[in-house]
Amino acid sequence: MNNLPEFQNTKEWYLSNFKSFEEKVNGESKTFFHELRKKAILKLSELNFPSTHQEEWKYTNVSPILKQNFVPAQIADFSLPAKSEIEKCLFTGFDYHLLVFTNGIFNKELSNISELPSGVYIGNLKNAVLNSPNLVDGYLNKYAEIENAFNALNLIYASDGLAVVIPDNVIVDKPIQLLFINGDYHNLILSQPRNIIVAGKNSHVSLIANYYGSGDKQYFTNAVTEIFAGENSIIDFYKIQNEYDDSFHIEKVQAYQQKASVFNHYNFTFGGGLVRNDINSKLDGENIETHYYGLYLANNKQHIDNHTFVDHVKPYCMSNELYKGILDGSSRGVFNGKIIVRKDAQKTNAYQQNKTILLSKTARVDAKPQLEIFADDVRCTHGATVGHLDDTADFYIRSRGIPEELAKSMLIRAFANDVVEAVKVDAIKEKINHMIFEHLHRVEIVDSEKSQ
Amino acid sequence: MEDLTKNNMPDELSEDMKMLDDLTTSEYKWGFVTEIESETVPKGLSEEIVRLISAKKHEPEWMTEWRLKAFRQWKKMEEPHWSNVHYPNIDYQNISYYSAPKKKPELSSIEEVDPELLKTFEKLGIPLNEQKVLAGVAVDAVFDSVSVATTFKETLKEKGIIFCPISEAIQNHPELVKKYLGSVVPYTDNFFASLNSAVFSDGSFVYIPKGVRCPMELSTYFRINAQETGQFERTLIIADEEAYVSYLEGCTAPIRDTNQLHAAVVELIALDNAEVKYSTVQNWYPGDKEGKGGIYNFVTKRGACRGKNSKISWTQVETGSAITWKYPSCILQGDNSIGEFYSVAVTNNYQQADTGTKMIHLGKNTRSTVISKGISAGRSNNSYRGLIRVGKNAEGARNFTQCDSMLMSDKCGANTFPYIEVENDSAKVEHEATTSKVGEDQIFYLNQRGIATEDAVNMIVNGFCKEVFNELPMEFAVEAQKLLAISLEGSVG
Q1: Residues of chain A contacting residue B356, judged by C-beta atoms under 8 Å apart
Q2: Which of A271, B62, B320, B467 could form a disulfide bond with B284, CB atoms 3.0-4.6 angstroms apart?
């Protein structure tokens, strides 16, 4: 519906490439995974790419993505990035397991997984499907519904990505750092990691997903991440997205939470020309906690769209959401935060806050917080503000002899701090603070203890 | 702990529930049918019907043309379904688009009005012949679709104020009507506005000349009567430079089994330094306990702050109608203009409300305030849907929005769909929303002080709505509290 006919070709382009992909994955044509792909093909023929006529895509026009015929990484020959290039992208200063994915495909040489507690699987999806399919069989594509053509496209070519399976009662001490490095020097690449994280009862795992660009061609990252949080489990998920400013980035995160689990999602967006994040949680048990933190910075012509959806199904749960945006240049920000409290979800506490600052005349923002409540004994609030840097505060700082540029940076840092402070790993905090100013091309504020 | 989840309330609470049940099932107090002969055109809609309506009202050619243009536009349009309300399909060919009480052609005084009609107003508690004495309110009574009596005309005339049925204004002040009709809500605006433009029967026309402050609150009592007659009101209010007017709209309707469509259009225009205050109390038949019957209230209300320093303020108390679907809006064109929206929407039983506002900031230093209070009980569904848009050139625009919802039962729904679109970096937009139920601690506190639960809840709900009630003119504030009491007092979820 409402799709321009020319983009019909985009769909055909991706479908026509499936044959050569199928030949490549010959070995797995009998696996359950391949069945899912075939289903996804059927789905794609029914679905269209989203258009601005659809409520969920009202403010985001995806036609620039559809104008290009990207080559799925699975069938493309692309050059691998050098080790030195990788090191620049990593968060350092703490111990971690490292998994590197080039254009969505696992790269064993560059990765480094140290010793793991018994029963823990940290590796790539392809290996998991081939060698121990029962690890992921019950979870793959179970929670993330195919809602649009991008989701379908991901599943059609899905072959690799992250797979983490933590058994009951295991705490993974070291955070898992994931580096998704995308792009190429020859092809317009479509990189489609398919990630799955399964945390058993009473387990605890923390992940840092890091997205970077490589090469000099435009590329398109279309990721899907499924997260299963078992009873009493705790999952911390950091996403730091720093793709090329002319690239496209779409990710859908679907979390399914069981009783008393805690899911913390931290979403830092710096890069990407056209970015869309869908972060959804289904709270299907009592006493669950869900926290979403988001900070997005856009410059030049970037378009960053964050959609969050917290689905309260059962009583006694709590969700808290804090999203902040800083928009400079001619960038555009979109925030849509949906909270649904279902009929049985009594005693729910749901909070949401969305604040945006416009730093330039030509930046624009569209925000849509949204509450749908069908239970009566609840406490739900949301707040949204849009504004500019506080003139009075600015004046105050400058009257103390601090130059204008520095004063502005101080205010930006202060604004972003609520979100940055929520990060539990100091090394990440520091680097993010640095990235904020680097991305906005502004004078950097360094923590006073550090500079002394 | 487990028990609590399954709605096993403590004893005091279940008592409250019972009381809630009693109150929320209270019958519609104002329902009755006046037997009055109605003159109705055949059912259905076609160019002929539009011409017939126009001819019956002795309208000039340009007006007939305008209606026809609207009708042709309407035929091309599709009924919108994006809102959060559900209703059976409306058969637009099964509605009679015009009905007028039979009356003598010319009425110069109240005595000439049909006595049956006067009785209706008496039952409603608005004895027309006492209106002059009462509170200085001039009443332009709309019975079904044709205005039958207009009082206080003389007083207003002295000031140069025009307050008359719009049909009369078309005859007597065509230049004003031509200039402003459809200038805020064009006939192409939306499905229901186009329909209204094609078939509108009557409504009020107000023109306040330059520098005049209207000495009294103007009010119109709408009433839907003839069965299966859609009511298509058209209201046009113009405040010229430095003028001020406060307009009151209030309505009750008799019990009916079949659904009645109401698609009104209200246009407000404020020129330089002018102010328009528009207040509504809406208590149309909401349908019975099973959700049968009730009015469909699909209204387009919009005001344009055309001039510098102009102000438009909407206040509404919505307790009636099976479905309320309306967004009184302000287009803030003039520099320093102000838009306000205060709303209390109460839904009970199977009522549905999807209401809110749009504030379109275009001029410099424009300001808007939105306060919306939604109360849902029974199996009703109450949505706030609002848009705050700050255009590229709206330097220094400022908005504050607060929408609070209160839930009174575990079967109702409360939703908020605010949209914020900002294209100017100097804008400041704030939005706040909360949803909760009546606090048990608040009730307990009041109980402790010897206040019965029913009164306590009434007090809390009234307090919840106070910010909006404060904006209502005196007469309406009283009526609004009564309405709220009927619909909701004592409701604890």
Answers
A1: none
A2: B320
